[in-house]
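Quick note —
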Amino acid sequence: MDKKLTLSLNESVIEMAKNYAKQSNTSLSKLIESYLASLTQQKGSRNNITPLVKSLSGVISIDNDFDVKDEYAKYLIEKYK
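Predicted structure written out below.
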């Protein structure tokens, strides 16, 4: 069931949003509804791993005794010799 919502926004923001909605062939109400829906759905999915990252998982293997700080220090010393 749809309900009305009254918002107070900057006039220039409203005009830009109306133009954007018109160019997207949608209503301003649908545009705002979609935006709010995406905001509220993202909270639960922020920790989800994207398919790209998932596909890269396990590509590189690192020894258990690998010391990141030590290797980075060596890299910087070599870089700035």
